[in-house]
UniProtKB/TrEMBL annotation:
Taxonomic source organism: Streptomyces qaidamensis
Domain of life assignment: Bacteria
SUPFAM superfamilies registered for this protein in UniProt: Actin-like ATPase domain (SSF53067)
Record Pfam families: ROK
Protein name: Sugar kinase
Family: Belongs to the ROK (NagC/XylR) family.
């Protein structure tokens, strides 16, 4: 008998993943569909319902006590709606109500995907044992979440910790969000690659112009590739230091595709952090790579559902 079983959904622009997860963070049942991101909202919802139908067909479903959803954002947990940038068919889409109906009226907890990954890293990964942490996802975009006082801190709408849209360059490029010089506009994978190309980096014979290809070039000493990663590291350091100064975190965990670049990112990041995190209470801040990998969204959504269930006053782990 699984007394601590919850359902989890991880909804992004590429895939909709679902799982039944136990109280130790173990995934017992999985289901997945591609996200029909270019289709209308009801078509996207049908893919979610198919994932849930697979989960409800499991003999373990009867033990599930709640559903946690980590969704690409922005989300509005207070309204139960989502408007993912990369799923245009969903604008103020009533995802919580629709999932609740498809899941037999179980309680549903909605958080943003950055917050979900934070919950996973705090429960099982690199932020385990830290009461005050920032976890970041640096990939196509830059997202994040906060743990404060030992609890996940999603904020009223589920978006707290969205570090990608802190401005770190007042006269910087216009960001698609409407602001200027955002962390995401400098440090995301596509922007690392764009900057390298603009400054004269050229891909190899395979024509790969991804941030991973820029990272490989940086590892082999290409000065333009190195400089693009150093600029990204500087933006991340400024955002992390600002966050640490504001809420006193002691660790920043970095995941996502760009986080996998290793020393090419982390060495200049740690160096830049020492120039931004200068006050006594932020000087001991550590930076670490994420540990949870591709299941982080599911495990984090489950963590949020478990925490809400055991302590209805807290949306945290």
């Amino acid at each position: 008998m699984h007394t601590d079983l919850v359902a989890a959904l991880d909804i992004g622009g590429t895939k909709i993943a679902g799982a039944l997860v136990d109280g130790h963070g173990r995934i017992l049942v999985r289901a997945q569909r591609p996200t029909p991101a270019r289709d209308d909202g009801d078509t996207v919802m049908r893919a979610v319902q198919e994932v849930l139908a697979e989960l409800t067909a499991s003999p373990l479903w009867g033990c599930a006590t709640a559903v946690g959803i980590g969704s690409a954002g922005p989300v509005d947990a207070s309204a139960g709606t989502v408007s993912p940038v990369n799923v245009p068919g969903w604008r103020d889409f009533p995802l919580v109500a629709r999932v609740r109906a498809a899941a037999g009226n179980l309680p549903v907890e909605l958080i943003g995907d950055g917050v979900a990954i934070t919950a996973a890293e705090h429960w099982q990964g690199a932020a385990r044992g830290h009461d005050n942490a920032l976890c970041m996802v640096v990939s196509t975009g830059v997202g994040g979440g906060l743990v404060l006082g030992g609890r996940l801190h999603p904020g009223p709408t589920g978006n707290a910790g969205h570090i990608g849209h802190i401005s770190v360059d007042l006269d910087g490029d216009l960001c698609p969000c409407g602001s200027h010089g955002c962390v995401e506009r400098i440090a995301s994978g596509p922007n690392i690659a764009r900057r390298a190309l603009e400054n004269g980096w050229r891909p190899g014979p395979d024509g790969d112009t991804s941030a991973a290809a820029v990272a490989a070039a940086a590892r082999s000493g290409d000065p333009v590739a190195v400089a693009s990663f150093e600029r990204a590291a500087q933006a991340l350091a400024a955002g992390i230091a600002a966050t640490a100064t504001l809420v006193e975190i002691d660790i920043a965990v970095i995941g996502g595709g760009v986080g996998k670049a290793g020393d090419v990112l982390f060495e200049p990041l740690r160096k830049a952090l020492s120039t931004y995190a200068t006050l006594s209470f932020v000087r001991h801040l550590t930076v670490a790579p994420a540990q949870m990998g591709t299941d982080a969204g599911l495990v984090g959504a489950a963590a949020a559902a478990l925490a809400k269930r055991t302590d209805p006053a807290a949306a945290g782990v």
